[in-house]
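Researcher: We're teaching a course module on how sequence relates to structure. For the next exercise, students receive a sequence and then see the predicted structure as tokens, so they can try to spot secondary structure elements on their own. Here is the exercise chain.
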Amino acid sequence: MALTLNCVPPLSYPKADVNWVVKETNGQLTAINYDRRMSMDIEGRLRITNVIPADHRDGKAYTCMARNNFMRENAIGPENVIEVTGTSELRLPAYELWTSPSNQFFLAGSDMKIKCIFGGNPAPKVYWSKVDGTLPDRFSIKSFGQELWITNVQLSDQGNYECEGLNLESTQRTTKSIYISVESAPIWVKEPKDAEVGTGESATFICIATGIPAPAYSWYIDGIPLQDVRDPRIVGNQHFQKSNNNNITFVNLTLDYHMNIQCNASNKHGYVFSDVYLNVLAEAPTIIEPPPPMLKVAEGKTVNITCKTSGKPDPLITWYRGSSLITGDRYTIQDSGSLTIENVVLADAGIYLCQASNMYKSNVTSTACELQVKRRTRIENFPMDLEVIAGNEGKFTCSGSTDTDEVGNLVVSWEKDGKKISTEDQRMLLNVTENSLTISGTIIHDSGVYTCIVSNGLDEARAAAILTVRGNNNAKSNLL
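Model: And here is the predicted structure for the students to work with:
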């Protein structure tokens, strides 16, 4: 039959660790070696699935010991002597002796420990599963199979877990289902950010967090709860709007709207807090990074012409080529004020200017940028596929053309299978005069895709050819 010895540890902070010991005749305490038959439940009680004569231990007492490791102090519980009657062991199928509660919750990020102890003789084995899924890779089995641990609990770990006790006395399953709920302290989904805006503009502060249970939100203005604020900039003022608990908005702002704004999202497990600043400015536009004096780009490429500005309200940026306002699908004015031109054509060449305007000053004009558009680089003489016998020479030729102003920058280089060919390989000869690549003393390993790259520093053109090296029956083996 089974036996339970109770333990009521004293109050302790931090919580004491509990273990069971046997008191020897000389007063020394010896720790019990737990196994499937004799173990301790999570609440500190000693559980014996089936008592045997050896549990009498010659009348030595069992006692629980509580230890506060921080204070380095121990406390000993009442002594228990197990008196065993009878001589034969009754064989019993597995049955539930003690389990963790049927419903529990754990915080996301914490470690989960649940336990099932089954009575019976012989001592039952315990098996674990997740009813509505699979055990995560963070699980481990402890206490001789009786305890399931899951580290760093996630929301996906929520669900029914089942322990099963089984011994040789019966094929009937003895199971216990434990439902695990996972809750979490709030974490940010969208945290409020500092806002620096111009007069007449708007500013919205968004405060969204997730957590289980769902967080409650509290707003503060300069540290005062929103419901207690008496500031005329807030109370009864059309400049202030609160459409829901997750955001507040200020519209048509004036210079006196500078303040700290706080948002707190909390549930029973904790909170997140954000403290941000609203600043309203009145500044005329300034061009802080003008376009460069000159840019060169090859046709078909994308070019970005810099024009970074400051000012509040944010300046409106316009771009001109000569005296013509720039519009069209290929032209994009970035948030930074810079101009991006995609798929550049020769007709895009010219003088570019940016202008910045707001309510305090109009048409602040940058210095000029000359955009030079060069004709694209082309392959004129394409390399041809080659097939050679190992040991013989393989030669590729390739040439190209580019804009007349960039001819002096034209360079031909080569790659094999996507990797640049090194001039240190003495079998690879690059002839700059005739733009050729010669591979001498070819071996099977030289087979591959050879790519000619014609570049002028602005753009490039590529053409590929295949070299196939066939074996030579008369060649020596080192050609391979």
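Model: If you want an answer key for the exercise: Residues 285-374 form a domain with the Immunoglobulin-like fold (CATH 2.60.40.10). Confidence is low (pLDDT under 50) at residues 476-480.
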